[in-house]
Amino acid sequence: MPPLLYAWAADAVVLLHLLFMVFVAAGAALLPRWPRLLWLHLPALLWGFYVEAGDRPCPLTPLENRLRALAGTRGYEGSFIEHYLLPLLYPEGLTRELQWGIALTVLAVNAALYARWLSMRPSRVRRHRQHPPPG
């Protein structure tokens, strides 16, 4: 495969990684519209917390680095967050305390979103019982 295709594949992995992180961080906001996403979001949220709080590597980071090496460019050390996101937010670098803060913030945001979603559900059930859909 030509090196350019490996570079594009590595970029696609970065995009997938970023989309996954956004889904982990705020995917619960989609539940009022698509409640079945619960079965996809909850494991993603738990995985994201496991990786971030446990200082474990995400499998997408080594994949991206391997694709970059096949493209003839250098990969990077550390995690996706350290390499792509922290330079934008925190120029000093990633510490364990900061990783825990990120992980707990993501959990807190999602706990609030889940609580909001769960509080909305009984009212929808009552409405359907009082006014069943036609048909």
Based on CA atoms alone, the radius of gyration comes out at: 19 Å
Give the DSSP E fraction (strand runs of 2 or more residues): under 5%
Shape: flat
Low-confidence stretches: none
Mean pLDDT, nearest integer? 82
The number of distinct β-strands equals 0
Structural class per helix/strand content? Answer: mainly alpha
Span of the ends, CA to CA? 56 Å
Share of helix among residues?
A: over 70%
User: In total, how many domains does the architecture comprise?
Assistant: 1
Assembly type of the shown chains? single chain
Number of helices: 5
Q: What is the succession of H and E elements? A: HHHHH
Transmembrane segments: 6-30, 98-119
Keywords: Membrane, Transmembrane, Transmembrane helix
Organism: Azohydromonas lata
Protein name: DUF2784 domain-containing protein
Nutshell version of this structure?
With 135 residues, the protein is mainly alpha-helical. The chain has helices at 3-26, 38-53, 60-70, 80-89, 96-130. It has one domain (3-130).
Quick tags:
mainly alpha; 71% helix; membrane; DUF2784
Task: Describe the structure in your own words.
This is DUF2784 domain-containing protein. It holds the Pfam family DUF2784. InterPro entries: DUF2784. The chain is mainly alpha-helical and 135 residues long. The chain has one domain. Helix content is 71%, strand content 0%. It has 5 helices and no strands. Helix 2 runs antiparallel to helix 5. The radius of gyration is 19 Å and the shape is flat.
